[in-house]
UniProtKB/TrEMBL annotation:
Organism whose genome encodes this protein: Arthrobacter gengyunqii
GO molecular function per UniProt: 4-amino-4-deoxychorismate lyase activity
Keyword Lyase (UniProt): yes
Keyword Lyase tagged: yes
EC code(s) of this entry: 4.1.3.38
Pfam families: Aminotran_4
Similarity annotation: Belongs to the class-IV pyridoxal-phosphate-dependent aminotransferase family.
Alphabetized InterPro entries for the sequence: Aminotrans_IV (IPR001544), Aminotransferase-like (IPR036038), BCAT-like_C (IPR043132), BCAT-like_N (IPR043131), Class-IV_PLP-Dep_Aminotrnsfr (IPR050571)
Keywords: Lyase
Stored PANTHER family: AMINO-ACID AMINOTRANSFERASE (PTHR42743), AMINODEOXYCHORISMATE LYASE (PTHR42743:SF11)
This protein's name: Aminodeoxychorismate lyase
Length: 296
């Protein structure tokens, strides 16, 4: 069940559309070239979470692509319309845990028209997402082929933007699955830990009684994760220290625990890397998930 709402100046609350019939022109540059940006946001009980952080990041992704970003208010209204409709369609108690995936999408529109396409798609979070995370992830380290300083040197690679060109990320996941793994952590050609194809990487380390959360530095060409940031803020308020890379694979192997984190799946513990088991801690996963949920 998916609810679609297009941003449309003629409909201040957004224009509801039928997700079961075609809605985009075949020549839309989002479809033909992946020329657009998107966000995936969690909603719980009809309330979108971290909406400002998602809209901020989407606006900066749009800027990187020279796309005009529709007014935040239009997005907020379309999201609210979509979530109200989803609640009605699901009926009480039927939408699983009451959690929804809300996608915000913006493309350059049909070639030559100078008229972007912008819409919101809301659907229940599939139960499999939470089940998969609970089991722990076998992860492969895969070389992304760029060095960790390329983002600054080659802004046209759009490394810090969340564009619709995710074919490479999906190919990496298929490659990992073909090798019997569940997910991927990309490394740079100079051997630094980067991010997952759809997630940020977080490590916990305890030394001399100080508990620290670590993540690769943003300058290495990764997407600034809204979940990583919310978790770091909440953990710091709870007494954790925080730190940023550069990190190397050895840091992952030596950490007390490693997670892939993202808006929809929250914290998913990594249990092995390239076939080697690594420590994981159900107690830490529980503690940090509670901190994160409290911050959403
Ligand atoms: N890095 C990449 C490449 C992603 O695609 C995502 C989310 O989809 C993330 C990191 C995590 O971002 P967030 O926590 O904002 O969902």
């Amino acid at each position: 069940m998916t609810v679609l709402v297009f941003l449309d100046p003629k409909f201040p609350e957004g224009r509801l559309a039928d997700a079961a019939v075609p809605q985009l022109m075949a020549a839309d540059l989002g479809a033909t070239r992946g020329d657009g940006v998107f966000e995936s946001m969690l909603a719980i009980d009809g309330v979108p979470r971290k909406m400002d952080a998602h809209l901020d990041r989407m606006a900066s992704s749009a800027l990187a692509l020279d796309l005009v970003f529709p007014a935040r208010e239009s997005w907020e209204r379309a999201v609210s319309t979509a979530l109200s409709k989803l609640l009605v369609q699901a009926g009480s108690g039927q939408a699983g845990s009451g959690e929804a995936v809300v996608k915000l999408l913006l493309t350059r529109g049909v070639e030559g028209t100078d008229s972007p396409s912008a819409w919101v798609a809301a659907s229940p979070v599939p139960a499999a997402v939470r089940e998969r995370s609970a089991q722990g992830l076998d992860v492969l380290l895969l070389d992304r082929g760029y060095d960790s300083t390329v983002a600054d040197r080659a802004p046209w690679l759009l490394l810090g933007a969340k564009t619709l060109s995710y074919a490479v990320n999906m190919a990496a996941l298929r490659y990992a699955k073909a090798q019997g793994a569940d997910d991927v952590i990309f490394t740079s050609s100079d051997g630094k830990v980067l991010e997952g194809p759809t997630s940020s990487v977080i490590l916990a380390v305890e030394e001399d009684g100080v508990k620290t959360l670590l993540t690769p530095e943003l300058e290495s060409g990764i997407l600034p994760g809204t979940t990583q940031r919310a978790l770091f803020d909440a953990a710091e308020a709870a007494g954790w220290a925080r730190g940023y890379g550069p990190l190397e694979p050895a840091h992952l192997m030596e950490a007390d625990a490693v997670w892939l984190v993202s808006s929809i799946r929250l914290l998913a513990p990594v249990t092995s890397i390239d076939g080697t088991p690594i420590p994981s801690s159900p107690a830490l996963t529980e503690e940090l998930t509670a901190l994160l949920r409290g911050a959403l």
